[in-house]
C-alpha cells in the first residue's frame, strides 16, 4: 500500500510569505511534527517559477526542509526528510525533527513510500498553480 501526498499552498499572511504544507494520508506532516505554530517551507523555495521544484524526486537522494517551528529553524532545527526515487517508488526517509518537537514526537515520522506517478502528478499540479504569487 502506498502513501498519498497532497501539497497545499497557504496564502501569504501579515507576517510570512506563502508557505507549502504537505498532507500525507490526510494528515498535515508539518503540524504533526512541528506543532500548531510551525510553518511550512516557503512556496517560492519549494515551487520556484524559474526551475523545477526541489520536491521532484530523482535517483539521487536529496535532503528537503519541509517546515520549521515558530521560533525558526535556525533556533530549534528544521523538519527535514531525504527524498529519493527508486524506480516507480518515491521514498521519504531519514527524518530530522526540530529538537523542541521531540517531547511531543519522541520518534521521527515513519518512512513513507509514494507511487511515483501519483507523486509526480501532485508535484506538477502544485508547480502549475501560481495563485499564491498574486497578492489581493
What does this structure look like?
The chain is of the alpha+beta class. Helices cover about 20% and strands about 30% of the residues. It contains four helices and eight strands; from the N terminus they run βββαβαβαβββα. It has a five-stranded antiparallel beta sheet with strand order 4-5-6-7-8. A three-stranded antiparallel beta sheet has the order 1-2-3. The chain is globular. The termini are far apart. The model has no long low-confidence stretch (mean pLDDT about 85).
Q: What characteristics describe this protein?
A:
136 residues; alpha+beta; five-stranded antiparallel sheet; three-stranded antiparallel sheet; 4 helices
What global shape is seen?
globular
Major β-sheet profile: 5 strands, antiparallel
Q: Multimeric state of these chains?
A: single chain
Tell me the fraction of residues in β-strands, as a range: 25-35%
Global Rg? 14 Å
Tally of individual helices: 4
> How would you spell out the order of helices and strands?
EEEHEHEHEEEH
Strand order of the largest sheet: 4-5-6-7-8
Cα-to-Cα separation, first versus last residue: 41 Å
Which regions contain 5 or more consecutive residues with pLDDT less than 50?
none
Number of strands: 8
Structural class: alpha+beta
Mean pLDDT: 86
As a percent range, the share of helical residues equals 10-25%
